[in-house]
Amino acid sequence: MTNRRLLLVDDDPGVRDAYAAVFAPRAPSSSTERSRLASLVLGVSPARSLAIHNPFSLTIARQGQEAAEALERLKAQGQAPAVAFVDMRMPPGWDGLTTIEALWRIDPRLQCVLCTAFSDFSWEEIVARLGTTDRLLILRKPFDRIEVLQMAEALCAKWMATEQAADQARQVARQQTILRGIIDHAGLLITLKDAQGRYLLANQGFALRHGRTEAEVLGRTDDHLFPDQAKDLAAREAAAMSEGVCAGEEDDPRVATPARFHVVRFTLTTDHPEGPLLCTVATDVTAFRDLESRYLQSQKMEALGRLAGGVAHDFNNLLAAIMGFSELALGGQVDGRTRGYLSQVLQAGQQASDLTRQLLAFSRRQVLNPQRVEVGAVVEDLVAMLTRLVGRTITITVVNQGPSWVLIDKSQLQQVLVNLVVNARDAMPQGGRASIEVHGGTPGRVRVIVADTGVGMAPEVLAHIWDPFFTTKAEGQGTGLGLSTVHGIVLQSGGGITVESEPGQGTRVVVDLPSVAEGVPVVATQPGPITGGRERLLIVDDRDDVRSLLVEILGSAGYDVVEAGDPRRIAEECPACDLLVTDVVMPGLEGPELLRRLRVRHPDLRVLFMTGHTIHPESLPGPVLAKPFSHRDLLAAVRQALG
Description:
- The chain is built from 20 helices and 22 strands.
- With 643 residues, the chain is an alpha/beta fold.
- A hairpin with an 8-residue loop joins strand 9 and strand 10.
C-alpha cells in the first residue's frame, strides 16, 4: 500500500494554504494576503488548485517543535509520513536544519525537502549539519506547482521502494539467520570451498570439531590449516569436482580422536568469479557404527549361546546316564579296583558337568535356584577361601556398606565372586591389592565392585572380555570361559555388569543386582529325606538310557513306574498317575505341552520337569531338576513334587 502522507512545516498561513491547494485541493480561502503569498511562493492562486485524482494526506505544523511532536504521534499510530516539506526560516523557533535533525532522530526513514527563499546557509554548512544523504532535497522559492507535486510523488514512491527493499532485506536476514541456525545445529560438519580450495563457509560443527573459530577458517586453505593432511583431502575432493557428487564413509585425518564419517561432496554451479564451489557435508557415524558392531557381536553371542545350550543339553543327557549308572554300579557288589574305576568315572563326569554348567551360564540357559541372600554375608564367608586362593603376595580388603539382600542362586553368586577375584589375581603376578565392595544403600539395587591394582587391559582386549574362549593367558592356563560365565550369570539374574580398565591402571568390575526386601519369603531349596513311596509315576523322556536310569532308581525306591519314550503317544493314551516326571525338550511334543494335555483328564496331576537347559525355567509350571543329577537329588525332588 502506497504511503501518501506528507508533513508540511511552515510558519506562514498563506504558504500552508498554498501547499494544501496543491496536495489536497479544497475550497479556496478568501484572504487576499494569503492569496498574494501563495502567488509569491508557488506562482498560483489557491483558486486555481490542481485536480488530483489521489490526494495526499496532510499534517501541517507551524513550527519545528510542533512538527516533531506531530511526527512522534503519527509514528506511534503507525501513520508516519513519507515526506516532510520544511521551511528554512521559522522565527522565533527552530530553523529548518534544526527541525530536520529532530525529525530524523524520530524517524530516520523520512524524506525531507528544505524550502528556502534566501541563502541562509551554504551547501557546505548544510552538509556539515545534516551529512551527505539521499533523503534531503533543497528547493528555492518560488517554485512551480507541478514541480512540487511531482517531487512529492517521486519521494513517496522512493520511500515505498526503500521500505520494500528494507523489508526484503529483513526477510533475507531472517532467512539467513534461520538457515545458519539449521546449518550450525544440524549435527553435521558443513563446509563450502571455492575452486582454489579457500573456505567460504565453515559451520559451527566443523569449527568445534577442529578446535578453531569460523573466522580462523574462512579464506584459508587446507595447506594452511591442515598441512599434514592437505594432500589426502585434495585427492578426495578432486574426485568430487570431476564427478559432480561423491559419497562414502571415511575417517577424518585432521583430528587425533578416532571418528568415522559419512561424507557427501558435491559441486555447486554459481556466478562465483572463481568458478564452481565444492560443498562437503559430513555426518558423524562413529556411534552408529559402534552400535552396529555391538549388535553384530550380540547376534554372534546369541548364536553361540544357542549352540552352547544345544550342545550342553545333549551332553547333560549323556552325563546323566554315565554318572547315574556309575552310581548304581557303586551301590552294588564290586571289588575295590572296580570301585576305584567307577569313582574316577563319577569324578570325571562331575568335572564335565561343571564345564557344561559354565557353557550354560555363558548362554544364560542354566537352571537357577534363586534364594534371598545377603551379599555382604556371602562375601564375608568367602574371604578366607579367597585369601588362600590369591596367595600371600596379594592383599584382599572388603568394604560392606548397608543391607544388600538379593534374590539369586547363592552358588552362582559365589562363582561370580570367585571368578572375578581369580581374574584379579592373574592380573597381579608380582602381587598387589584387590578389593571387594558391597553397596546396598541404593534403592532397588545392590552394587558389588571388585577392583585390583594389576596390569589393566588395552581397549582392544576390553572389547572382547565377554567372548567365550577368549583369553590372554598362556595355552593351558585358562578356558576363556571365566568372564563369559560371570556375564551370563549376572544377566540371567536380572542384573548388569560393566568393566573399567586401562593399561597399568588396574581393573574395576561393577556388578549391579536388583535388590529385594529382607522379608521376602523364599521357597525352601534343601533336599528332603531320601525315601521312596508307592505312588504311580509316569516317566517320559525321549532318550532310552536316561529313561532306563530313572526307571531303575525310582522302581528300586518302591514307586509304581510307567515309562514312555514318545510324548505324543502317551498324551493320547493319557494314563492315570500321581506324578509326571518329564523332560522339557523332546521332539514332537515338549514337556509343558504334554502336561497341559494330560491335565485335561487329570486336573490334579503333579509334575517334575527335568532339563539339560532351559531359557526361562521360572516360566515352567512346576519344579525343575537339572541334569545331570545324583540319585539323592532325584529321589528328594520326586518326594518334594509329590508333596
